[in-house]
Amino acid sequence: MKQPQTFGELKSSGYRNRTIKEELRENLINALSKGETLFSSIHGYDKTVIPDIERAILSGHNINLLGLRGQAKTKIARGMVRFLDEWIPIVEGSEINDDPFNPISYYAKEKMKLMGDDTPISWLNRSDRFVEKLATPDVSVADLIGDIDPVKAFNLKLSYSDEQVIHFGIVPRSNRCIFVINELPDLQPRIQVSLFNILQEGDIQIRGFKLRLPLDMQFVFTANPEDYTNRGSIITPLKDRIGSQILTHYPKTIEIAKSITKQEAKLSAEQTKKVIVPDLASTLIEQIVLEARNSEYVDAKSGVSARLSITAMENLVSSAERRALINGDKTTMVRIMDFQGVIPAITGKVEMVYEGEQEGPYNVAQTLIGKAIRSLFDQYCPPVELRRKKQQETHSPYKSITDWFDKGNDIDLDMSCSDKVYNQTLNKIPVLAAFIDQHLPNIQQNEKYLWMEFILFGLAEHSKLSRNPLDSGFQFSDLVGNMFKGLS
């Protein structure tokens, strides 16, 4: 259907104008009535955050999303665009998207008074009705609201008090749009004050004279709770004018976290074809993030973003890909040693407390990987007896493995070795394959060597084996023998 091009045609078409909050509400009602999935790319919020978003939209509220970094706050705001009409009419040439049925700018009012039903109409797509502004301390009132344009006043020979000489800021230019201010507490308090009347009454004031501009907007703010004490705060009168404050959270299960990482990790088709990422590796990445969130070395108030697991997955796949390229392997599977390649993704994503700074980012990252391996080892494998009682050691499922190392045997695992050499090295421990067959019979055959490696790392984390770093890899040997070797 052809869109009307003049105000007269628009009226004849039966078009019904609505405020943006009415659009959001009615389109949400329609989607809920049809049982549609509203935020398909948001995982883990189905019973918590998303119902709160729906209630806020139905109530016609402006929204503040409060949560730690990496909790999909901006992604939620962008997802609200789907509840806007696909196209809306505006007065052609309007700087602030004037509604032809309710013009508010001097330009639109004068144009419609002059041309009436012949006023040209243009159409704005929903994709152009999302405006985002990052709050920084240097943001000014002029940036947000507007200022007097002296050049325009000179050219038009108008007084500075004339409405025509105003240069509109980003907020008026976002009329009839979803407007997002990220990291709201970073705005200086005097700048936050400038939003009072816009949120409540629709008035704006520029350089001492007051303009009545009833802006039609849906505001969404995002904030980090830590900002309230470290960098700034949302002043109380502004919080009072925001209808709904919605708390976000991190994924509550590893399965949800894995689905987020799978969706967000930017892996090329070539990488996904060359590198196999088994479920154990995906789970280990998310376990590292959980360990970081509970670590005494990491600042819990700062949080650990979901971006850690996303970039860690990208690094993990790249580590395996690099090894395959060096050795000429057409395909390869992720190894436990490849997790050394995710350390750069960890060190840049966690904020250390004093103890963490003293320990050092690299050592903290190694500790997190080790704790994650130990946690998954305890979940998937038979329990390891902590005390070395003779009777317990006799019946330990790991006795055959530790006995092999007790005889003075050791192996060197090279991070860059080919798959063939990797398999040959692990096959030197025949009891290791037998352990997998007996205690982990459901492991897929192509993942067997990965699990054999995992067992070695897990026993080292439980102090049953010694693991020493090499130039490119690790050496596994008898723990007691290694201690005496160090003494000598």
Break the fold down into its secondary structure elements and pairings.
Layout: H1 7-12, H2 20-33, H3 49-59, E1 63-66, H4 73-79, E2 87-91, H5 106-115, E3 121-125, E4 130-134, H6 141-144, E5 146-148, H7 150-156, E6 166-168, E7 178-182, H8 189-193, H9 196-200, E8 203-206, E9 209-212, E10 218-223, H10 227-230, H11 236-241, E11 244-247, H12 254-264, H13 269-274, E12 275-276, H14 279-293, H15 307-327, E13 332-333, H16 343-347, H17 354-359, H18 361-380, H19 390-395, H20 399-406, E14 411-414, H21 419-427, H22 430-439, H23 448-461, E15 465-470, E16 473-478, H24 479-487
Parallel strand pairs: 1-10, 1-11, 4-7, 7-10, 12-13
Antiparallel strand pairs: 2-3, 5-6, 8-9, 14-16, 15-16
Helix pairs in contact: 2-3, 12-14, 12-15, 14-15, 14-18, 18-23
